[in-house]
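ARCHIVE CARD
Drawer: 12
Card no.: 0347
Subject: one protein chain, sequence and derived structure
Cross-reference: see card 0346
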Amino acid sequence: MQAILNLFQILTARLEAGRFIDLVSSRRHTPYFTRHRLAAVVTRIRLAAFAFSALTLIWIGLDAATLERHQWAILAIFRVGAVALFIMLAVTPDRAMGRKTVLTMLGAMLAAPMILYGVFQLEVGGSQLHGLAAVNGRLYDSLPFIVLAGLSLFPLVTIEGLMFALPIAATVAAIQFTQANLDAVNLFSTLWVLMLSLGVYLLACAIQLHYMIALLRRASHDPLTGALTRRSGIEVLDFHFRLACDQEAPLAIAFLDIDNFKSINDSFGHEAGDQVLRGLMAALHPLLRQADIVIRWGGEEFVIVLTNTPVEGARIVMGRILEEWLGKRPDGAPITASLGLAERLTDSVTDWSKLIALADERMYSAKSSGKACCVLGNGVIMKSAETH
């Protein structure tokens, strides 16, 4: 027991700080991670549904060979319905889906074998089965365990896992209670094994989820600054731009370039330059909302995506940056930047790449205007002194 506790402590210690809650609930998951997680769930639903449709059809032959005619005929009707459901899930169009839609698909897929389990128990349960029929009966009895095992294929948070697993255990208990020859020992042992399976299944889901979080973070975030990489940032930017267009909502983009960054590398070395980049991200985070996104566009250039933010709100954010600036240079001077701001509605832009280009153009105008300032639409220039 002590060895198990030690192993658990080692595993929990290896989780990144603040990440344990991400295995329990999806509340704090970023939109980027949520889209990838749900896409993985949908892909696995399609594969599992395709496999289940074939196995469900084959099982009709086993029922026909081992059960009485009226019993296997009833089961066959439900099996045909389950196959139709599985095929529908397997050919679901490849499009972005919300969390509720994806979980509904998963619930429908899991419900089909549990309905077959229930129908078998109500029609055949309690009967004396022999030979191959007894083997078939054992296979039906194992369906709840197979469903639980199948759940471990999906990167679900603990709350979602319990949402699916607890009804399975309740269904088994309810069916066994309704049977005339209720065996308390058999009921207890079945539920006990189900709970053990549930524990293993939840652990498997947590391991999958933690691995996916770590993998996506390494793939999508710049290792030096922690900002999104340009590749993953483009994906996020495209998503938020399309969402803003669908909702007729504002979306502001700020293009930021550190002033005189080359002189830091030349005078103090690249390690000092790296420290400046790390410090910039640490200084930016308190000035932005949690929903805002920072992308390292290249070198000392960063793109700030201000979601659902009109130009007036974006001006306030730019004012904070101009007032607080972005840390200290190695010589003690403040790290200033040239910024260009563009907003989807105000600038009448219909493509995110054009919005980026417009913000980039204004950033270069800020550099031409003496640096350490932000250029808005119509050539309006914000300087640090104007924020005091």
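Annotation on reverse: The chain has two domains: 2-220, 230-387. Confidence is low (pLDDT under 50) at residues 13-18.
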